[in-house]
Structure formats: structure tokens, C-alpha cells
Amino acid sequence: MSTQAPARDLTYTIARIVTESLAPAILIAVQLVAVGWHAGATAGTGRWWGVVAALFAAVLPFGYVVRAVRRGQLTDHHIQLREQRHIPLAFGIGSVLTGLILLIALGAPRDLLALLAAGGTGLAVLALITRWWKMSIHSAVAGGTVAVLVAVYGPAMLPTAPLVALVGWSRVRLTAHTPAQVITGTLVGTVIAAVVFPALR
Known about the structure:
By secondary structure, the chain is mostly helical. The protein has 8 helices and no strands.
């Protein structure tokens, strides 16, 4: 992958906006709240379980990263350097597992538990691959998010699919990833979400 800084024109600005607004923490929180809201349509089930799940799967892991950046332990909140990704990913896995155990004990909806389990699986796979290669986490989460939303809400969510391509384009435009890293991330995230989540629902 090129180490040269990308030329800063309008496309660079758009890519930066896409990368920040569709960042993994944001998409993870959105899908958890959306799935929790859908599960809450069942009589006797609260709609806000997804907020609790998002705390463990998105807010706490992102908070850890921001704190590490401020302490100079990480270069940036997207963790551009592959060598710096191991500990944040391990923290994320631990946080998701903690949230999963807590939500099981509290009787959270099965869909939400399945989604947390799928997310934990995805993080574990990403952590393993990251030992040798810098796959795009942005693209993995984007692909997984669309797969989950379609599984829960049906074909009405298919129009969100182009967002996956948009996220991938933004990562390549910013020279954060190669096309191969983006495509692989998309495939891994989508397959895990499309297989593990439905199997555990």
C-alpha cells in the first residue's frame, strides 16, 4: 500500500466525511439499536435493549481507543497501523463478551444476543487476520451491518447496500487500504453476519 499522502481535493473531503460518518463504532451502534427496536415489537419486550448492547459493543471499545490516542499509545482513532490493532481488538472482544453475558443474565431478546455473538465472532476473525494483514474493519462492519438489517427488516433494507461500496471507496481514496483489503473485509463481515447471526436467532 502506498505511503504517500492522498491529494486533498473534493473527493478527499467526501471520503473523509464518509469514513467518519460511517465508522465502525457508529454502524455497530446503529445496527444494535435497530435490532433491539425490532425485537421490542414483541409483546412484553422492551425496545431499548439495543442501547445497552451498543454500550458494550461500540461505546466502550471506541472510548478505549480515544483514550489510547490521547495518551499517545495509538496514532489515530482509526488505528491506521496494523501493529497497533491487537490490543484494541482484544479489548473489544472482551467488552462484547461482557455485554453478552450481562444481557443473557438480564433476559435480553434472542436477536440481540445473536447479534452480539456474531459481532464477537467477527472481531475474533479480524484479530486473527490482523496478525498478518491489515484488512479493512470499516468495510467488514459496513458489509455486516447491511446483512443484519436485511435479515431483520427484509428486502426493504437492500437500498442500504451501496453504502458498503461507498465506505470501501472512501478507505481506498484516503489510502488507508488497498482494494484487496476492502474487498476482503466486505466479504468477511458480510459472510459472518449472514451466517452466524441467522443461525443463532
